[in-house]
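Late entry, written up from scratch paper. The run itself happened at the end of the previous shift, but nothing got recorded in the book at the time, so transcribing now.
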Amino acid sequence: MALPWLFTAGKGSPSLLSELRRELSACDQVDILVSFITLSGVRKLLDILQSATAVGADGRPRTGLRILTTTYTGATEVQALDALARLPGCEIRVSLDGRRTRLHAKAWLFHRRSGSGTAYVGSANLSGAALMGGLEWTVKFTERGQTDLFERAKAHFETLWEDREFQLFDPYNQQHREALGEALKRESGEDIIARPTYFDLEPKTYQQEMLNQLQIERDHGRRRNLVVAATGTGKTVVAAFDYKRTCTKAGGLPRLLFVAHREEILKQALRTWREVLRDHSFGEILAGGREPEQFDHIFATIDSVTARNIVDRFGPEHWHTVIVDECHRLAAQRFHDFVSAVKPNILLGLTATPERSDGQPILHYFDNRPDGSPAVELRLWHALDLQLLCPFEYYACDDDTDFSTVPWNQPGELAAIDNLITGNDVRARLVLNEWRRLAGDPARGRTLVFCVSVAHAQYMTDRLNASGIKAVCVVGATAPDERRRAPELLARGEVSAIVTCDLYNEGVDLPLVDTLLLLRPTQSPVLFQQQIGRGLRLAHGKESCLILDFVGRHRQEFRFDQLLSSLTGLPRGELIDAVEKGFGSLPPGCHLHLQRKTREQVLDSLRRLVQQNWRRLRTELQTYAALRGRNNIRLVDFLREQAIELEDIYRRSGRSGWTHLKRDAGLLNQDTGAEEAYFGRRFSDLLHFDDPERIDLLLKVGESKAGYPPGSDRERLLMQMLAYQIDAQQHQSGTGEAFLHRLHAYPE
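Output as recorded:
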């Protein structure tokens, strides 16, 4: 069978088992990728595998054998791996975390030095049922006939083989065997309380990359670093391993101060540190009435740090390493006072969303990279791409509630929303109907319901219980014991929903939650992403998280773009295409659907935003300046807080440039120069620089008020390149120095 073929296991179709046996009898290398392996499958191939891997006179097996598999659903059998791993030259790597890997691909790649390799890709695992009689489809293709496809399959296998998620299995290593057994129990549901496996105290591959990036930043002298990573990706674990690396270099335990805004976060962090350091006496908590005996390794709330005045008592350099967790949550003034006061050797900020809800920036407190980005960045959409989080199914549901009078981001916002939806029986019926339609039986799920107020939460709890859906209301005033018990009731299935207000936005792990009801409309991408993050933790048996967002009707100015971008990572321009044609490039397993009325409303809003004419920009800047003060206007703040793209300011034609816009808005008084408009348009060519060396030069030029003199031949060359990029149309022969002189005639 040299031609491509589809094996269907039906009558008249060749046997997949016989074809695999034939391939194994004459090949140089076999790579196998399957979700699980059973003894019934191995038995049917064991004799031919023993023959293929027999050792020759040169002491090497005739055929090399590499196998990748997982503990997904607990179906892999230890005896099957034992039989394979004992074959000469056979290497087996196993992912012990089925929640993350969820490997569904099945492939057999047969390599031959002659170049006549073959591949079988389909749905069959290495099990007796799959090889003999299961309703499986498998496609065969060849290296010579479908070269590109074969090379892609080969390359992807190599990528997975090098992924540290897949761990070597040695049948003679007792630690490996115990870890495999524990993982299989956990995945099959036999072991409800997961115990650490042998590699649990090693960073995951993506976490090691984050650690490497931190080290690169420090090698460049940037020691105040911000880590931006989506909820559920293990920011605290990364920080703990970073500290462990510091301990290894220092030969001891350097002083550590870990700060957060809530005691629950401190307790979780302390447990992580003790596990990573393998020292269960490490660290003390400073919070509430708890006072540490020593102040060398402390985990403290920001309130306790401030109340005890510990920075002044012990000095700003007392701690070698200072870590600020959830740093976007600290009150702006307290965060400023604390981070400005401490002078550690290493400062590390941790956050999932650096954009604060009050609009106050935090990036400038850290040593950012030359392009202005944080030291480490793993956003929600990147984490979903890497399958570090559970895929989402997001539905924006049509809702006729009129929110057009709500004063967004102003005093009275929550009260206005509360008045519209608390006691609104029509909306409550809509929520229940859509929930049943999209989830099937809501009582079988584990749901978190986000409400706008305590009254709204209690109202919705009553409505759910009256509809036969067991629900419990948990708010700030709920007794601590009841708050702790609610997630346990949800996990055991004694209730189907937790209804809440201003709780569970962060700092609490609820991995079993598989449905979110967003009943509080918001314009805050920070709050939106935090609430969605509650449902994206990986958990056994959880395929995806269903998110129902009841959108309502809004003014034209409502910023749907901010919310959708925080979920997808798409810029405003690409969002329009995605809304019109469907979100086809989402991370694996994710789905995003806007119902008809909502889709039309979102499209209208996006189109109006993209048509950012100069007049609208000028009005936005004038309004912004009225709130911030004429002397407190920075381009970076204006772009971020108003969700405006840099391309809106710097255009290739027409009016362009930040200086021009400020002058039109009445924020600059000096006269315009002859070349100001020219430079404003030409700067649009610089928007997509990604070369760190050239970005560094741009920063030096921009920060210098009197003109930056190039300090080396290399810098002079880069300066001439910059001059040519901006200025070639008018001054083909101009030198870098002459260009700088002209540029700095316009300091604004």
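Confidence is low (pLDDT under 50) at residues 191-199.
(Scratch paper discarded after transcription.)
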